[in-house]
Amino acid sequence: QCPGIEPLCLDVSDWDAAEAALGAAGPFELLVNNAAVAELQPFLEVTRGALQRSLDVNFGAVLHISQIVARQMIAQGVPGAIVNVSSQASQRALRDHAVYCSTKSALDMLSKVMAMELGPHKIRVNTVNPTVVMTDMGRINWSDPQKSAAMINRIPLGKFAEVDDVVNSILFLLSDKSAMTTGSSLMVDGGFLVS
User: Fold this and answer.
1) Sheet holding 123-130: strands in order across?
2) Which of 25, 34, 65, 187 makes a 20 to 30 Å CA pair with 112?
3) pTM to 2 decimals?
């Protein structure tokens, strides 16, 4: 469907592997950072391993991969766009999501700093902040009808997001139709944050 896109399979938390793979793959004009883990644990039971893995994937990988790609964009002297996939959980506390909420909040702020520092190079940086999305991970974490009903009841549109809802928002932020948008968070939450 997308002939100009070549997926790279790698452990994004492995900085050396990311450097090698992306260094050989450029040049880039667009980047979507979408990798994430959600290891749900109550605050009092958060393990060091879950914390480190979440920081490495949800925050550290985005920082490092964005550095690699942005340096290439700057070297080419072409404008670019970066979209970091965050979450509504970056702005609203959720039970058993202490680490996930925190890493997504950190991602939102990183994106704002990136927007400020990369703007002079004509590189825009934004986040998309979806509600629960019906991916494989979303289905695993929200398969309990009681748990999902409580969340859906807080979403004015009364449903979780589908993958296309998020993809279309990302495509907008990558496109010239959002040429004056940077440092912003686009909520794809069905109104969750206003409820």
Assistant:
1) 30-33, 80-85, 123-130, 185-188
2) 25
3) 0.93
Q: Strand pairing partners for 83?
A: 32, 126
Q: Is 100 a catalytic residue?
A: yes
Question: 59: which residues sit within 8 A by CB, 6+ positions away?
Answer: 103, 106, 107, 110
Chain centroid, CA 90 distance in Å: 10
Catalytically annotated residue among 87, 97, 100, 126: 100
Pick out the chain residues at pLDDT < 70. Answer: 1-2
Quote the pLDDT of residue 111.
Answer: 98
- SS3 for 62-120 is HHHHHHHHHHHHHHHCCCEEEEEECCHHHCCCCCCEHHHHHHHHHHHHHHHHHHHHHHH
